[in-house]
Amino acid sequence: MTSQNNSRTVGIIGAGAWGTVFAQVLADAGSQVILFTPEPDVVDSINGYHTSRYVPAVTLPAQISATGNLQECVEGAKRIVVAVPSHAVESALSPLFGQIGDREVLSLVKGVRGGEFMSTIISRTLGLAEHQLSVLSGPNLAIEIAARQPANTVIANPDLERAKGWADVCANAYFRPYLSTDVRGCEIGGIVKNVIALAVGASAGMGLGTNTRSALITRGLAEMTRLGMAMGAQQETFLGLAGIGDLVTTCSSELSRNFTFGSNLGKGLSVSQAKVASKGVAEGAQCCQDVLDLANSLGVEMPITEAVVDVIHHGHSARQMGERLLGRPRKMDGVSLQIVD
Ligand SMILES: NC(=O)C1=CN([C@@H]2O[C@H](COP(=O)(O)OP(=O)(O)OC[C@H]3O[C@@H](n4cnc5c(N)ncnc54)[C@H](O)[C@@H]3O)[C@@H](O)[C@H]2O)C=CC1
Ligand SMILES: O=C(CO)COP(=O)(O)O
């Protein structure tokens, strides 16, 4: 099936859980959507049966088709969405360098690599002009949205008209975008919440309850905000959907791969066992070292992130993580904006 070359055709690169469900969001808002994935069984399943193993028990709208040919995905598309995991962004997009023209691009990716945010890497890899890329981030568990449960999100671009353009294309009866000019803040929120969800998941896996969860969410918000402020983000972003909103969702749901990954660690699985058990990419495990490196380069203190890195990369147990955080020196309550707290 090929896309129709009209103003409502969107090409999505990446047909995992979020790319596929976002295709449904766009189709329900009136677009034709063509998904690219290198997985032939997923192409066949979407084109032949309107189903995908990434979103079980969901029948996708007829306006969605799939292709294993990257050029076919983008050639008829008026707008382009990037929905691959952070580690695959460069390999997935590099064949398209210089071919996007003046079309608008939207990143759904939540990750950081080598000190660079996804907006920077995607823009460079595709050869985009300034502000051609918008970022979508918020409390958006794909499986809930697949069931058309109400969800809000944030679309960010320093040029608000471009963010509005994307909001017009994806707003529907159950999906409501808010707007922001704070791309960096939205990206930091979407990254750090995954790391904190690993810690919260680990505490849940150890059998700990809601007090521990609230403590980690609150102090996690402080870490996220400190890093964001040190990087020029706006403080209010972290009190919005892309900050506390996504943090609460990801730290509260067994639908979250990061929460589940952490929970498996808390139950005693090794990092490699937890990775095998994971039903999709857990970006927090992929990116926690990058977040810590970024924080260290700026002199920002992120004790929960540091403890997560020690579990993911240095063989610490979930129990050791808890002991270490509880043994820290006394602090003042509240979100201090001092980079060292
Ligand atoms: N699943 C969710 O609820 C949400 C996910 N996100 C973010 O969206 C991004 C993608 O996540 P998911 O779709 O959930 O991942 P997933 O783990 O469900 O699927 C990953 C997809 O990427 C594809 N892929 C891998 N390498 C590729 C390549 N080189 N070229 C093209 N496709 C490639 C795989 O074939 C697979 O279809 C992540 O950064 C995640 O944090 C953001 C919000 C919600
Ligand atoms: O970003 C998400 C929810 O907003 C998805 O979280 P997980 O990647 O942990 O499943």
What does this 3D model show about the protein?
The protein is α/β, with parallel strands linked by helices and 341 residues long. The protein has two domains: 9-181, Rossmann fold; 184-327, N-(1-d-carboxylethyl)-l-norvaline Dehydrogenase, domain 2, CATH 1.10.1040.10. The chain is 49% helix and 13% strand. It contains 15 helices and ten strands. The protein has helices at residues 17-28, 40-49, 70-75, 89-93, 118-126, 142-146, 160-170, 183-205, 210-230, 241-250, 257-266, 271-277, 283-298, 303-314, 318-326, and strands at 9-13, 32-36, 64-67, 79-82, 104-107, 112-113, 116-117, 133-137, 151-156, 175-180. The strands form two sheets. Strands 3-2-1-4-5-8-9-10 form an eight-stranded mixed β-sheet, with helices on both faces. α8 runs antiparallel to α9. The chain starts with 8 loop residues before the first strand and ends in a 15-residue tail after the last helix. 52% of the residues are buried. The model is unreliable at 1-5 (pLDDT under 50). The structure holds 1,4-dihydronicotinamide adenine dinucleotide and 1,3-dihydroxyacetonephosphate (13P). 1,4-dihydronicotinamide adenine dinucleotide is lined by residues 14-19, 37-39, 54, 83-86, 88, 91-92, 108-111, 140-142, 280-281, 283.
